[in-house]
Design a protein that fits this description.
It is a single chain. It contains five helices and 13 strands. It is of the alpha+beta class and 287 residues long. It folds into two domains: 95 residues, Gamma-B Crystallin, domain 1; 116 residues, no CATH class. The strands form three sheets. The chain has a six-stranded antiparallel beta sheet with strand order 8-9-13-10-11-12. A four-stranded antiparallel beta sheet has the order 2-1-3-6, with no helix packed on it. It has a three-stranded antiparallel beta sheet with strand order 5-4-7, with no helix packed on it. A hairpin with an 8-residue loop joins strand 11 and strand 12.
Amino acid sequence: MFKKSVFVLMMGALISASFGAGAANAATARNGVCESGEFCLYYNSNQAGSVSDFDTSIPDYGDDQPSCYEFKSDGNGKGLCVKNNAAAVWNRTSSSVTVYFNSGYAGPKQTIAAGAKANLNSDLKNENASHKLADSGSGGGGGGTYGAPPSNPHPSAAARAPQATARTQFVDDQIARLTGEKDCWVGDYRSYEPSTSNHNTGNALDCTISNAIGSYPSAAQKEQGWKLARWVQKYASQLDVRYVIWQGKIWSVARSSEGWRDYTAGSGVTGGHYDHVHVSMQNPYGD
């Protein structure tokens, strides 16, 4: 009886120790530590800054808090959404992982070998929306980035809405030619705005993305709007763009190091720019 009791106790201790060791070695996704078996995104290049760790494929990182996947650990970028904010990765899984430009595993992509560390390439650095585990990158794709526009040849000038300046018309033409978006307008003169405002001087475009002004976009239209907004952001220098507003966010050349910031000058569907992408040009007034 004594020997049997000792045997049972010893076996229980061994089983307990075995399970304990397994728990200690298992990866814990979303704890801000890049552990074995996980795929990790970093805010800064060279695996620096805050980290966001995953043990599954993610078809859409999400755009806004509190629903987006965020950078978890201490360091630069902590708390920010990882979508369009990651600069480097570490693949600690046993298979290749592919990062995609668009949600739904589409658009330009970069495949990271098992165990490899890498900086995201020029198409994907701060332009990332999804990743797929055990993916060689041979599938998916499509819908890539829009082509590069030529440099805007027109000088800074002012017109009177609804007329566009030559500089603004050039941007409108390039948007239509390269992105297929054809619903961009200066709009009528706005008596409630200063005469030197971007729209009133013909130096701004509003590109309708939803079915109509005043209505929220569908998920697909929202993705479409981000694709346009980030294309304008990417080529702001060539286009002579000053700032872009979309989905309650603003990006400007003057504060480009801050990325997309919360836009607080307007609210609601139209005031917050949820139904249209706003594009302002560099102009004589800077408004």
